From TrEMBL:
<feature type="domain" description="Circularly permuted ATP-grasp type 2">
    <location>
        <begin position="82"/>
        <end position="458"/>
    </location>
</feature>
<protein>
    <submittedName>
        <fullName>Circularly permuted type 2 ATP-grasp protein</fullName>
    </submittedName>
</protein>
<dbReference type="InterPro" id="IPR016450">
    <property type="entry name" value="UCP005522"/>
</dbReference>
<dbReference type="InterPro" id="IPR025841">
    <property type="entry name" value="CP_ATPgrasp_2"/>
</dbReference>
<dbReference type="Pfam" id="PF14403">
    <property type="entry name" value="CP_ATPgrasp_2"/>
</dbReference>
<dbReference type="InterPro" id="IPR051680">
    <property type="entry name" value="ATP-dep_Glu-Cys_Ligase-2"/>
</dbReference>
Length: 482
């Protein structure tokens, strides 16, 4: 252990380290892992790295990173040192996420029906009704079985004291689960002996659980419902995931041109003729899903799909209009949403958030741009963000203008010292990288949370940006039973 980790400095006084305590000793659930890694030579690590690279290359495990001069398609960056989560810690995360998703589903049903939470002034109505993701066309429309959120990927971080905080909720088309599954397969090939040391809970059954959930939310009366995955196509950054999940579930991967609506029913064009479609796991945003309802220039969607959806003849997962619940401004009200609908205190807390629409918050934000993180309310993937401590004066001035011009479109948060985890680069260099965790929640007749999730890693030394679209990577996440 000492031979391998001697060069690692956790900087525990500045960041919560997932592996080492402030005194520099391993946390109990990492003892066996570090002991085993300590027996590997640099050549051993290099051989295992090459094994993983070959596996990823053969599987076509890629992600698109926009803006790179050398090309946008690359192998998904993977760190060989897994993250270990003890079962009692995971139990807290599971309970907190189940509470959160339950409340958000009730919130969505309410705002698309009676809007009681707005009339009770728990949330200012203009923040909901003025959001670009609030779909007025669906007020009064109830999705099959009353479920809006079927697949969720909430991002969880730890602050300097080790407390779990929800950074944001991804309720529209959360991505990354295929990398979670492939990371596990890569680790089993590269380090099979490690799995003999731990009782690692499996994640491999996620595709079957996803298919079961999608079938459960099919329109009433449909025996053996037919499920398809709807992708924007091969040029989408997450196309690998779309095709992977369709293949693993044993369902058709379709594009908009493969589906047709006839008499408010959705059909897939196949070599056997038209086949009725009951559930669409869509990876296309609302705006592009039906050119007759939203953007008329969309070539990605299916003309007439929304009429079929409104009639209750097809389920869209996730439902149209869920984006309002992962609007970053609405995120700041989730603790109140939980208390309002469930009468409970949040199990997982939010990151403190300032809203520029409040005059006092705006004043504070403009005076502290050099210390805050500013985010566009409806951007994702790390876009539209200012990290104050890493920004220039010019960038701060530009964001100040944007905020003043459109305060509803921004939030500000303190710069959280995300927890760190030792990561291995160049097969010999070991240093702490900031990480977060994206567990995946499936919501059908019951709520299922895959034990683990995707741990994302900020690969650039000192960076706080873990998003894959910004060049971040990932590592395998082990929920372990002692």
């Amino acid at each position: 252990m000492k031979r391998f980790f001697d060069g690692y400095h956790p900087e525990a006084s500045r960041f919560f380290d997932e592996v080492m305590t402030g005194e520099g000793s391993p946390r109990p659930h990492y003892d066996k892992l570090l002991s085993r890694f300590g027996q590997f030579s640099v050549d051993d690590i290099k051989a295992r790295r090459e094994m993983v690279n070959i596996y990823f290359r053969n599987q076509g495990i890629t992600f698109t990173v926009y803006g790179l001069e050398e090309g946008i398609e690359r192998l998904f960056p993977f760190d060989l040192i897994p993250r270990v989560v003890p079962s009692e810690e995971w139990a807290l995360i599971e309970k907190g996420l189940t509470q959160r998703i339950t409340a958000l589903n009730l919130f969505l049903h309410d705002i698309y029906h009676t809007q009681k939470i707005l009339r009770d002034k728990v949330i200012p109505p203009e923040l909901v009704l003025g959001s670009p993701h609030f779909r007025r066309e669906f007020v009064g429309v109830t999705p099959p079985r009353g479920i809006y959120i079927h697949i969720t990927g909430s991002d969880i971080i730890r602050d300097g004291e080790g407390n779990h905080l929800v950074l944001e909720d991804n309720l529209r088309t959360p991505s990354g689960v295929s990398y979670m599954l492939q990371n596990r397969q890569a680790m089993k090939r590269a380090f099979p002996v490690l799995f003999e040391k731990y009782k690692v809970r499996p994640v491999e059954n996620y595709p079957q659980e996803l298919l079961r959930t999608l079938q459960e939310v099919a329109p009433q009366g449909r025996a053996n419902p037919n499920v398809v995955v709807l992708t924007p196509g091969i040029y989408n950054s997450a196309y690998f995931e779309h095709s992977f999940l369709a293949r693993q579930m044993g369902v058709e991967l379709t594009e908009g041109r493969d589906l047709v609506v006839n008499d408010n029913m959705v059909y897939a064009r196949t070599t056997r003729g038209l086949e009725r479609v009951d559930v669409i796991y869509r990876r296309i945003d609302d705006d592009y899903i039906d050119p007759l309802m939203f953007r008329p220039d969309s070539k990605l969607g299916v003309a007439g799909l929304i009429n079929a959806y409104r009639k209750g003849n097809v389920t869209l997962a996730n439902a149209i209009g869920t984006g309002i619940a992962d609007d970053k401004v609405i995120y700041s009200f989730v603790p109140k949403i939980i208390r309002y609908y469930l009468g409970e205190d949040p199990i997982l807390q939010n990151v403190p958030t300032w809203l520029p629409g409040n005059p006092s918050d705006l004043k504070y934000i403009l005076e502290h741009l050099d210390t805050l993180v500013v985010k566009a309310a409806n951007e994702s993937g790390g876009y539209g963000m200012l990290i104050g401590p890493e920004s220039t004066t010019e960038e701060q001035e530009r964001f100040a203008e944007l905020i003043v011009k459109n305060p509803r479109n921004y939030i500000a948060q303190p710069t959280i010292s995300l927890s760190r985890h030792p990561s291995l680069f160049n097969d010999s260099e070991l240093y702490g990288c900031h990480i977060d965790l994206r567990p995946y929640v499936l919501n059908g007749k019951t709520t299922t949370i895959v034990p683990g999730g995707l741990t994302r890693v900020a690969l650039k030394r000192g960076s706080l940006v873990v998003n894959s679209s910004q060049g971040g990577g990932s590592k395998d996440t082990w929920v372990v039973d002692e």
